[in-house]
Design a protein that fits this description.
The protein is of the alpha/beta class. The protein has eleven helices and 13 strands. It has one domain (about 1-175, about 215-240, about 275-290): NAD(P)-binding Rossmann-like Domain (Rossmann fold, 3-Layer(aba) Sandwich). Strands 3-2-1-4-5-6-11 form a seven-stranded parallel β-sheet, sandwiched between helices. The protein has a two-stranded parallel ribbon with strand order 7-10.
């Protein structure tokens, strides 16, 4: 297959791109910045894919990527992916996550050779709902800038599916983690880095928020399952095992043999208290299940950072 990946230099994009080229797909990646230390480079992917210089916010760049590489399947992962950055810089986040998404959707609509568009949304698109776990038919109510950008992009994808019959499948994952994530403001890589440096890990919230943590290899299998299917619409992917932020940090400390105690700042008053997903639709329609529980995923993740952050 001729495949286009946006967001290929991110944690999910890099591992997904590797899986695609490993199985023999012809992959092109729309890349904004050269990031020599990214997992994309660590995996040697620049030598194995066609790299297209461009930005999602520029419609002409997106159209060129679709047309010149005769794309049959597109995995749209490109976005500003950090909640804190989104809240500090809402305009750039809206430009990337909303304008970038409608550019991809519109380019896909006019591209006659396209068979599938797998579109990255997020569990954050749901916002803060009272009923748990979240199911795909629940409303999207993102309230802060980052969450709202994901809600808007998700609704746009549904709009193109219903109005233009665009073959788009929408992915809503829990909190992704795994090797190759260099955004150390995130709790898992940040905690591992702190322990490797002999410093107390920092928890910005009070430690009680519950989240569903999904290992990146399971996320890759979810995207491939949707890309290879004919299913459309939204799908949740997670482990259905909510875990508190404090417990995640404690698991990392135990696995790394550390006696450090986390510093709990309690400086995140707008943090959603509880958020996790039902994956019944993915099980029933795709036969998908996660292969990694949190302990096993953390063990592989810690080993990755020990190798790469010496």
């Amino acid at each position: 297959m001729k495949v286009l990946v946006t967001g290929a230099t991110g944690i999910l994009g890099s591992w997904l791109t590797k899986a695609l080229v490993d199985r023999g797909d012809e992959v092109a990646c729309l890349v904004r910045d050269e990031v020599p230390g990214s997992n994309f480079h660590l995996l040697g992917l620049p030598r194995r894919v066609a790299t297209i210089r461009g930005v999602l916010e520029n419609y002409a760049d997106v159209v060129r990527a679709f047309n010149e590489y005769e794309v049959e399947v597109c995995y749209h992962l490109g976005a500003q992916a950090i909640v804190g950055v989104g809240n500090r810089n809402p305009l750039s986040t809206f430009e990337s996550n909303i304008r970038g998404s409608w550019n991809v959707l519109e380019a896909a609509r006019h591209h006659r050779g396209l068979r599938r568009l797998v579109f990255a949304s997020s569990d954050k698109a749901y916002g803060d709902l009272d009923t748990l776990p979240y199911t795909e038919d629940m409303p999207l109510r993102g309230s802060n800038p980052y969450d709202a950008s994901k809600s808007c992009a998700d609704l746009l994808a549904q709009c193109y599916l219903r109005t233009y019959r665009l073959p788009v499948a929408i992915v809503r994952c829990g909190n992704l983690y795994g090797g190759g994530d260099f955004n150390f403001t995130r709790i898992i890589p940040g905690t591992i880095l702190s322990v490797l440096r002999g410093r107390r890990p920092v928890i910005r919230s009070d430690g009680t928020p519950l989240r569903d943590y999904l290992y990146v290899k399971d996320a890759v299998s979810a995207y491939l399952a949707l890309g290879d299917s004919e299913e459309t619409g939204p799908f949740n992917f997670g482990t259905e095992t909510p875990t508190s932020v404090l417990e995640v940090v404690r698991k990392i400390l135990r696995q790394m043999g550390s006696r450090l105690r986390p510093a709990i700042l309690d400086e995140a008053p707008h943090e959603i208290a509880r958020q996790w997903l039902s994956c019944a639709r993915a099980r029933e329609r795709l036969g998908w299940r996660p292969r990694y529980d949190l302990d096993r995923g953390l063990a592989e993740t810690i080993a990755w950072y020990r190798r790469h952050l010496r």
